[in-house]
Write a structure and sequence with these properties.
CATH topology of the largest domain: UDP-N-acetylmuramoyl-L-alanine:D-glutamate ligase
Number of strands: 21
Largest sheet: 7 strands, mixed
CATH architecture of the largest domain: 3-Layer(aba) Sandwich
Strand order of the largest sheet: 8-7-9-6-10-11-12
Radius of gyration: 22 Å
Distance between the termini: 50 Å
Number of domains: 3
CATH class of the largest domain: Alpha Beta
Length: 457
C-alpha cells in the first residue's frame, strides 16, 4: 500500500537518502527543511515535494513522519503529528524497517564511511547485483545518495551519531576506524567504544575491520567471521607498491592472504583511500565477486561529493572541497593535497564544526594543519549547538600551531582576500561540514570573472 511519508529535516545527508529509497519504492514522499540543500534539490528533481520552513499544515494526510536527529521535540510539525495520532519516528528507529527485506552490508567508522559505502555499492552495481544503498554524500556515479535497488543486498552507511547504527542488524559490517568524536552524544571515549561494541554484537555473519587503526582493531565479537585489512603486514587484505597515479588517485598491488592478486588503480586520492578501497574489496570478495570485476569497478568509481572534490580551476589556481572537520580528517586531507600537489602553496580554509567537538579535541586541532602553507579559520558552524561564549573561530585560530594563521568570518571578504593573495599553481582547500564550501565557489567566480567578478561578489 502506498503511504504518504513526510520527512522533517529532509535536507540532511541521512534523511534525504532514506527519502530517496522510499520514493523509489513507490511511497508518496514529502519533506520540509529550513533551506534547500543539494540533497533536497536532488530529491526535488526526482519528483519529491519539498517545503521550505516548518509548518503544521504540512502534516495532515501523512501516514508516517520521520524526523532528523537535529529536529527538537518541540518542532511544530512533530507536535502536529502527535496531536493527529500520526506515528513519528527518528532515523534509528526506522532503519530496521528500511532494511528488513535485505541482506544488509553496514559500513561504520569515524572517518571514511561515505567513500567506502559508495564504493561497495558501486562494485555490487557493476557486478549486476543492483543493490539498494544509503550514503552520507552525493555519489556522482549514481546521481543520488540513496536508491532502493532490486537486488537482495542493501549497503548502508552506519552512522554512530545519536547511536543511529544501533538500529541495524547487518549480515556484514565493516569498520573503517574508531576515534573519539561526537562528544555531545558520547561524553567519554569509553561510551563511544561501548556503542561500537554493541553494533558489532548485532552483526549476523561477518566483521570486516581495518587493523591499522588501534580503535577499530580493538573491536571483537564472538561467533563472527573476522576479515582484516590495512596497510600492514598482519592484515588479510593489504597493499604494496603504493603510489599516486596520473588520474589523481592511487595505484597499488592488492594482496589477499599473502597472495598477489594484481594491480589496482583508483581515482581516490590519498593513503587513507587505499585502505578504504581494500575494505570495499574485502567485502566484495566475500560476496563472491571475482577480482577482475572488482578491479574494473574500482577504476571507474569517482567517489562522493565533498570528499577531496575538485570544484574547479581558475587562473592556474585549483579549488578543492572536502568534508573534513575532525582533526584526523584534516590531516588526511591536507596530506593528500600535499601528495597530489607537491610543489603547490596550499591554502587551508577550515570551518570549525560544533563547539563541543572543538573543546573536546582542541589539542589535536592545534597540530592538524602541518601540511598547509597558509591557514584561515572561519567562525564555528554550530549546527545543533548554541554558542558557549568561549569556543570561537578566533579562539581556535590563536591556539593552532602554525606560522601563518588568520581568522576571518565573512565569506565574501575571505574569498576576496584569497583572490588577492593566491598565485598560479596554488591550491585552496575548504575543510567544512557546514557551509564554508561557499568560499571556494565565490573564489572561483572571482578567478573566472577577474576584477568584474570581484566587484560583483
Amino acid at each position: 500500500m502506498r503511504r504518504r511519508v513526510h520527512f522533517v529535516g529532509i535536507g540532511g545527508a541521512g534523511l534525504s537518502a532514506i527519502a530517496h529509497v522510499l520514493h523509489d519504492r513507490g511511497d508518496h514522499v514529502t519533506g520540509s527543511d529550513q533551506a534547500m540543500s543539494a540533497y533536497a534539490r536532488a530529491l526535488e528533481a526526482a519528483g519529491v515535494q519539498i517545503f521550505l520552513g516548518h509548518d503544521n499544515r504540512y502534516i495532515p494526510g501523512a501516514d508516517l513522519v520521520i524526523a532528523s536527529s537535529a529536529i527538537p521535540e518541540s518542532n511544530v510539525e512533530l507536535v502536529a503529528a502527535r496531536q493527529l495520532g500520526i506515528p513519528v519516528l527518528r532515523r534509528k528507529t526506522f532503519l530496521m524497517e528500511l532494511t528488513a527485506d535485505y541482506e544488509t552490508i553496514a559500513v561504520a567508522g569515524t572517518h571514511g564511511k561515505t567513500t567506502t559505502t559508495g564504493l561497495i555499492a558501486w562494485i555490487l552495481d557493476q557486478a549486476g547485483m543492483d543493490p539498494g544503498f544509503i550514503v552520507g554524500g552525493l555519489l556522482g556515479d549514481f546521481g543520488a545518495n540513496g536508491k532502493a535497488g532490486s537486488g537482495k543486498y542493501f549497503v548502508i552507511e552506519a552512522d554512530e551519531y545519536d547511536r543511529a547504527f544501533l538500529g541495524l542488524h547487518p549480515k556484514i559490517a565493516l569498520v573503517t576506524n574508531m576515534e573519539y568524536d561526537h562528544p555531545d552524544c558520547y561524553p567519554t571515549e569509553h561510551e563511544l567504544f561501548e556503542a561500537f561494541t554493541q553494533f558489532i554484537n548485532q552483526v549476523k555473519d561477518t566483521f570486516v575491520v581495518c587493523v591499522t587503526n588501534p580503535g577499530a582493531a580493538a573491536l571483537h565479537a564472538e561467533g563472527l567471521k573476522r576479515i582484516t585489512y590495512g596497510i600492514d603486514s598482519i592484515a588479510d587484505w593489504r597493499a604494496e607498491e603504493i603510489r599516486p597515479n596520473p588520474a589523481g588517485g592511487m595505484d597499488f598491488l592488492a594482496i589477499r592472504h599473502g597472495e598477489l592478486l594484481g594491480l589496482v588503480r583508483t581515482r581516490l586520492p590519498g593513503m587513507h583511500n587505499v585502505e578504504n578501497t581494500l575494505g570495499a574489496m574485502a567485502v566484495a570478495d566475500e560476496l563472491g565477486i571475482p577480482f577482475t570485476q572488482i578491479r574494473q569497478a574500482i577504476t571507474g568509481y569517482h567517489g562522493a561529493g565533498q570528499r577531496f572534490e575538485i570544484l574547479g580551476e581558475g587562473k592556474g589556481v585549483t579549488v578543492v572541497d572536502d568534508y573534513a572537520h575532525h582533526p584526523t580528517e584534516i590531516r588526511a586531507t591536507l596530506s593528500t593535497a600535499r601528495l597530489r600537489f607537491p610543489e603547490a602553496q596550499i591554502w587551508a580554509v577550515f570551518q570549525p564544526h560544533t563547539y563541543s567537538r572543538i573543546r573536546a579535541l582542541l589539542a589535536a586541532y592545534i597540530t592538524a594543519f602541518h601540511d598547509a602553507d597558509h591557514v584561515i579559520i572561519t567562525q564555528v558552524f554550530g549546527a545543533r549547538e548554541q554558542p558557549d561564549g568561549v569556543i570561537t573561530g578566533e579562539y581556535l585560530s590563536k591556539q593552532i600551531n602554525h606560522p601563518d594563521v588568520k581568522h576571518m568570518e565573512d565569506f565574501t571578504i575571505l574569498a576576496k582576500h584569497l583572490y588577492e593573495q593566491v598565485k598560479p599553481g596554488d591550491v585552496v582547500v575548504t575543510l567544512s561540514a557546514g557551509d564554508a564550501n561557499e568560499v571556494g565557489k565565490l573564489l572561483l567566480e572571482l578567478l573566472e570573472g577577474g576584477e568584474k567578478g570581484l566587484s560583483d561578489v
